[in-house]
Write a structure and sequence with these properties.
- It is a single chain.
- Helix content is 39%, strand content 22%.
- The chain contains eight helices and five strands; from the N terminus they run ααβββααββαααα.
- The chain has helices spanning 12-24, 31-55, 109-113, 119-128, 164-182, 205-208, 210-214, 218-223, and strands at 59-72, 79-91, 96-102, 140-148, 155-160.
- Strands 1-2-3-4-5 form a five-stranded mixed beta sheet.
- A hairpin with a 6-residue loop joins β1 and β2 (79-91).
- α1 (12-24) packs antiparallel against α2 and α4 crosses α5.
- The longest helix is centred in the N-terminal third of the chain and has 25 residues, at 31-55.
């Protein structure tokens, strides 16, 4: 992306393959295992090359892998929202696109719209305030997860390109309400505030003794 911001080379796929081999060959000890992963990589590279060429008909890369931040007033003082964006593009029709690359996971249009995936809307909020170096202050018109796994579906896109401002506004309001709640010294910090959306790794579950309490019967819990 950084090497070819304006126009992709015709042999782009070949360049990616050569770069991958030169970079990764030194890390490969088990050639049989690498042959399995290389086939997945080839599917990803082919999908991305095709998708990127179509995407470039309506957008141009602006910045990638840059950190940014913004601050806003909260009950206990200014709160700083910070993050690092994978990629910001300038849309030819106006506005900006924020793109995040994923190697797997569940990313749906519904989850983006209802605020269950707040990462991109929060980055859009930072972008609108001019918080990403080199990007300026731009309203976002596209939020997209580009998921590339190399499986049966080598890649897929979950995105919104309508009503982005409403989504960002909802997420902004939710963030400010959350910060205000936790600025209250009496607000407890729960290790699993939403068990139905528990993270894969949690640094605080062991402190709350979640597994220990979960194995107790009602009588044991009262005794404890």
């Amino acid at each position: 992306i950084k090497a070819y911001p304006d126009r992709l080379p015709e042999n782009g796929l070949e360049i990616v393959h050569n770069f991958a081999r030169e970079t990764l060959d030194g890390y490969v000890e088990d050639q049989a295992l690498w042959s399995f992963w290389w086939s997945r990589f080839e599917r990803i590279a082919l999908w991305h090359d095709s998708h990127e060429r179509g995407w470039r008909t309506k957008a141009r890369p602006l910045v990638s892998e840059v950190k940014g931040e913004m601050r806003f007033a909260a009950p206990a003082g200014d709160f700083v929202l910070s993050g690092q964006v994978d990629r910001i593009d300038k849309m030819m029709g106006g506005g900006a696109a924020i793109i995040d690359y994923k190697s797997g996971g569940s990313y749906t249009l519904k989850a983006l719209k209802n605020g269950e995936l707040p990462q991109l809307p929060l980055e859009a909020l930072i972008l609108a305030q001019g918080g990403f170096e080199g990007a300026g202050a731009i309203e976002c018109s596209y939020l997209g997860y580009w998921v590339m796994s190399g499986g049966r579906d080598a890649g897929k896109v979950a995105c919104v390109d309508e009503g982005v401002d409403e989504i960002v506004a909802v997420v902004e309001q939710g963030l400010k309400e959350l910060v205000a709640r936790f600025d209250d010294a009496d607000m407890p910090y729960l290790s699993l505030p939403r068990p139905d959306q528990a993270p894969r790794f949690n640094d605080y579950v062991h402190l709350a003794r979640v597994q220990e309490w979960a194995t107790l019967s009602d009588d044991d819990a009262e005794a404890a």
